[in-house]
Design a protein that fits this description.
- The chain is of the alpha/beta class.
- 42% of the residues lie in helices and 23% in strands.
- The strands form 3 sheets. Strands 2-1-4-5-6-7 form a 6-stranded antiparallel sheet, with helices on one face. Strands 8-12-13-3-14-15 form a 6-stranded mixed sheet, with helices on both faces. Strands 9-10-11 form a 3-stranded antiparallel sheet.
- Helix 4 crosses helix 5, helix 5 (177-217) packs across helix 7 (244-258) and helix 5 (177-217) crosses helix 10 (293-313).
- It is globular and about 70 Å long.
- The two termini are 25 Å apart.
Length: 376
């Protein structure tokens, strides 16, 4: 898979920019704040409909505009597909495939597959559980686009259920039982789908994380484990098979019943995948809190490389984006990362100066200055 052409309208700092690409490596060189990351961010956005830099879409729209458009022509095998997404200041975003409108923006998911490496990736190792959950969800949505709708529905149910249990603080629980049962049924169904998909993805990632880490930093025993916040659900994800969703659903039902009094006292939903964690260990010790800076970086890179390998194992070679990561790495890790991503069909790199990019990744280059993008 590779991007042949990219067009941005009122996206971030760009009123309009149109670029053509070829397979292989393309590097955008420019000092901080010149707009190079905005370009690769737009490509990644088409893959997940989310930014690796901000949580909301509003910052993606150029100041003074009320919408932004990202359009790309993508080639996969012998097929060309044009996809564009309009990011709206208000209301739901819109999208088209080959100039034809689709019902929902998320219907374009799966057309572009991309893996982004960025300085923020240290959060995958050192950050909150939400950072690791987001990592799994972003990879999962690219493998199975329907999960985007499942996540959106779960978030909606969770908000409604939280509002209900909060309204019951200081009141008899019987006052909300009938309504709560409706939300519980939806929460367990959607939550089990999310948790089961994440658990399966962790199992699929495990061997790739192990081999990637060994390639970057040498041999070590790397383990990943999906850990639900509820012990009863946790027991169900120890075996990954076709009954996993059903088993998690039953476990969530029981956990919700068990935690009912706590929830109505605290006014918040205490059971569900929104509270789950991913444990990552290196030679038996938690990476978070024990790993050195270099080990943490190596693990973060290994997670991203493993994500690319999982997508590749599904039959599609993802686009690889290296957003200003080489400046963060020592010469050894630069060389190892370059060797690992070099076989990808298309690689996009951003760098402050050309010297940051390993010679193994030489290719097309654009200079970015004051929002202007020009071939070097």
């Amino acid at each position: 898979m590779w991007v042949q052409a990219l067009s941005l309208t009122d996206f971030r700092s760009y009123a309009q920019v149109d670029l053509d690409f070829a397979p292989g490596v393309t590097t955008f060189v420019g000092l901080n704040g010149q707009g190079k990351t905005n370009i690769v961010e737009s490509i990644a956005y088409l893959a997940t409909l989310s930014s690796h830099r901000v949580a909301a879409d509003a910052p993606l729209i150029k100041l003074g505009a009320n919408s932004a458009v990202v359009r790309a022509r993508v080639r996969e095998g012998e097929r060309n597909v044009t996809v564009d997404v309009q990011v709206l200041e208000r209301g739901s975003n819109k999208a088209r495939i080959n100039q034809s409108p689709v019902t929902r923006a998320r219907d374009v998911l799966g057309i572009v597959r991309a893996v982004v490496f960025a300085p923020e990736d240290l959060a995958l190792v050192r950050g909150d559980p939400s950072d690791r959950r987001r990592f799994l969800d972003e990879v999962g949505v690219q493998r199975h686009p329907r999960l985007s709708g499942v996540r959106a529905d779960y978030d909606k149910v969770l908000r409604q259920r939280n509002a209900l249990v909060k309204s019951a603080i200081g009141k008899p629980r019987s006052s909300i039982v009938s309504t709560l049962s409706v939300w519980n049924e939806q929460l367990t169904k959607l939550g089990a789908d999310i948790a089961a998909s994440r658990a399966q993805l962790v199992e699929d990632l495990q061997p790739f994380v192990q081999s990637s880490y060994a390639s970057i930093a040498g041999g070590a025993d790397v383990k990943m484990r999906y850990r639900p916040s509820s012990p009863r659900v946790g027991q169900e994800v120890t075996v990954i098979d076709e009954t996993l969703r059903e088993r998690i659903t039953l476990a969530m039902d029981a956990d919700l019943e068990e935690r009912a009094e706590d929830e109505t006292r605290r006014g918040i939903t205490l059971v569900g995948p929104h509270r789950d964690e991913v444990d990552i260990t290196l030679d038996g010790l938690p990476v978070k809190g024990y790993a050195s800076h270099g080990e943490s970086w190596s693990m973060a890179l290994a997670l991203r490389l493993a994500a690319a390998d999982v997508l590749r194992s599904d039959g599609v070679d993802p686009i690889v984006i290296l957003d200003d990561v080489f400046a963060e790495l020592d010469s050894s890790r630069r060389a190892h990362l370059a060797a690992l991503v070099q076989p990808a069909t298309q690689v996009f790199i951003t760098a402050a100066v050309p010297q940051d990019v390993p010679v193994e990744l030489s290719g097309a280059r654009f200079d970015v200055q004051d929002g202007q993008v020009s071939p070097a």
